[in-house]
Amino acid sequence: MTDPVAKLPSELDQLPDRDAEETAEWAASLDAVAQHAGPHRAAYLMRRTLQHAEAAGVPVPRLLETDYVNTIPTPAEPAFDGDEAMESRITAWNRWNAAAMVTRGSKLGVGGHIATFASAAWLYETGFNHFFRGKEGDGSGDQLYIQGHASPGIYARAFLDGRLTEAHLDNFRQEAGGAGLPSYPHPRRLPWLWEFPTVSMGLGPLSAIYQARFNRYLHNRGIKDTANSHVWAFLGDGEMDEPESTAALALAARERLDNLTFVINCNLQRLDGPVRANFKIVQELEAQFRGAGWNVVKSLWGSAWDELFQLDTTGALIRRLREVPDAQFQTYATRDIGYIREHFFGAEPALAELAKLLTDAKIAECFYTSRGGHEARKVYAAYRAALAHKGTPTVVLAQTVKGYTLGKGFESKNANHQMKKLSVDEFKGMRDLLGLPIPDSAFDGGVVPYGHPGADSPEVRYLQERRAALGGPAPARRVHAVALPDPETNTARAFQALEKGSGKQEMATTMAFVRLVKDLMRDKETGKRCGPIVPDEARTFGMESLFPSAGIYSPLGQTYDPVDRDQLMYYKEAKDGQILNEGITEAGAMADFIAASTSYATHGETMIPFYIFYSMFGWQRTGDQMWQLADQLGKGFIVGATAGRTTLTGEGLQHADGHSHLIASTNPASLNYDPAFAYEIAVIVKDGLRRMYGPDAEDVFYYLTVYNEPKPQPAMPEGVEEGIVKGLYRFKEGVPASAAAPRIQLLASGTAIHWALAAQELLAAEWGVTADVWSATSWGELRRDALESDAALLRGEERIPYVRKALEGAPGPVLAVSDWMRQVPDQISQWVEQDWSSLGTDGFGLSDTREAARRHFGVDAQSITVAALAQLARRGEVPASSVKEARERYGL
């Protein structure tokens, strides 16, 4: 009978076989093993051969999945560098105080999470005791992305080492008074402790990858020696379902980021139940990370399993562990020994024979508690292996029990994520399990006490000595106040070029902004700190001129001869390149921006990032990361280019942004501007540099929208700087045909000012109406100022909103227009004393010429004219018939 395997096509068939007889002998040997010793033995030999080939440097593809066992066998574990008994006591105190803090807070209804830290405690404690570098050495240390729901454990450790008090712990999730602890890692709320906000799941792993990449960027550009900085990202196995969690795995491997380690707490549970009820999440993640090019270290089983594996002479145990789905294994952790003997070991005769050699106590230890993530030596070995590995990032897959040490009411229960407290009796059981010296009398009144061995106890001294040896406390955030030179003096020429205008030459505001960035990058002192970031649209924005001069960052440099090498603006990659060109990933570009914008704290090196993107694909697509940017106190300029709903001709609905300013207005840290002219950009950026990087630096960032419609750029009028920054100034006053001529105020932002200027001429020439045209550079800043004025009034202070003062005495009604939804200018309507109306581009975008699109939305010059006449007619200042006549004349 012909072997059916031989009929299968193979890619090897197209390659010459120089010794077909030798090949046949190898195949025959494998067939013989499979026939006489079984297919599992054949598979074992094949894997041994592949491992040997890899170790010998033979180029063979790696397997994507290995057996469901630890990567590092117990005999191969390195010597443990510490006092394991002491660290166990420290961890016990931290487990207790984390649970006590949440339980005490639950009496006030503020909630909290207990089970996550309970399962991951050793993953953190081992790192804090042996691996995580503090900032007191090189100012950078390691970067720790803490799993958000584990925050109580981090607070408990800070309490043990003296950085927090009982009063702090009792204010967990009670921040209104100003002395509370935020629910999750939050630099804006607790800026001396937290560096990275991580509870918006998926953003932590994505940001960690780009932080590790940015560390290399700083190093390769000679800005900061980050060779010793390591990025540790602690994640949950359920969190890996978020698309952002795995979006940049290939980038990390491609750029050889061996300064990065993911630690995934595989407790097999997400918020509502099993992560992979019918499958195995560890195996899935292993294949995913190996396929992306990562080094994978699995730490699944505690030392109690060693005896079982030694008894498994047939491979039956390994096979069973691979086939049991996660939800069933979770069930084993909650059922009696008889159930485990029947349902796990009873699956095949070889396993049943093995089980006869095991005591009930051994089975209970293995299936209830013995996990790799619960033993300091296992975790230590995994972390040592991660740091020793070079050339690619590492992921540690550590298996744990969710709710470990919290008692049978918590451990492995589907609902434990929502369980916020333990009873007094459960705490007493936990105390006994952990061996803590807390007497029953400490529970008088039903209040769970905090526990502390004493400021001068061996535990606290040990903890502090370990941290001192590693460079100080962690996590910790440090801000080095290094102000950049005053833009008025150092980079004045860059701004003056835009303030002079372009004369008769037409220039889009997108191009004006790019020119400004290019000139800023030439400055001797601050130029190197400018970091242009773009998601594969640099040529769209006219940024290709930066390629040969600044270079595109690549850790490998340029290993090829670029196709456009003979052109002036060729595609130049360089190891010290300044531009971060991220490819088609706005999420990646935003992660880059966050890392750069917070470098002043992370590394004590101030950077000035400029992230330029299609405005439609900013706040709409990556708005969660803009909030992360605000949470992390980032500074810099995010620039929505090719902005507006009608300005990007031909692209249509999916590219037509008429709403980003509305979304941006919801973020308190975002200062949002919609400049109309190049000189306005110059004034705004200059003010931004002062506010974000000056002596009195603020924790804000700027959002600017710029357009791709070429227009002559006027020179800056005198005395308009304050109005530009605050959001409104009169650009062009109308000339009354007579003293009795009706008047109206036209407020416009961005490219809409050109339609307003055209409408100003139509109103004067054809209808005898005088219109003043105002440039509204920021509807959002006008609203912010007005809100602050309202708050001041409540405090008894007299304060008039800037928009009201600016328009004070301006005759006639106000008509606002922009290339945005009407809600954008309508943000300020309640503070305008004149009659208010607005025009905008509400609805979906569409593909057409600019003129047709503007007529469709009713925002072109003729539509503005008719709307102005209608507003005046309602006031009785022009005949109502004029409105009808204008509509007919303009074909509306």
Automatic annotation (TrEMBL):
NCBIfam families: aceE (TIGR00759). Its EC number is 1.2.4.1. One of its GO terms (molecular function) is magnesium ion binding. InterPro entries: PDC_E1_N, PDH/Transketolase, PDH_E1, PDH_E1_M, THDP-binding, Transketo_C/PFOR_II, Transketolase-like_C_2, Transketolase_N. Residues 493-710 form the Pyruvate dehydrogenase E1 component middle domain. It catalyses: N(6)-[(R)-lipoyl]-L-lysyl-[protein] + pyruvate + H(+) = N(6)-[(R)-S(8)-acetyldihydrolipoyl]-L-lysyl-[protein] + CO2. Its cofactor is thiamine diphosphate; Mg(2+). The keyword Oxidoreductase applies. Mg(2+) binds at D237, N267, Q269. Coiled coil: none annotated. Keywords: Magnesium, Metal-binding, Oxidoreductase, Pyruvate, Thiamine pyrophosphate. Residues 147-299 form the Transketolase N-terminal domain. Component of the pyruvate dehydrogenase (PDH) complex, that catalyzes the overall conversion of pyruvate to acetyl-CoA and CO(2). SUPFAM superfamilies: Thiamin diphosphate-binding fold (THDP-binding), TK C-terminal domain-like. This is Pyruvate dehydrogenase E1 component. It is an enzyme of class 1 (oxidoreductase). Residues 727-860 form the Transketolase-like C-terminal domain.
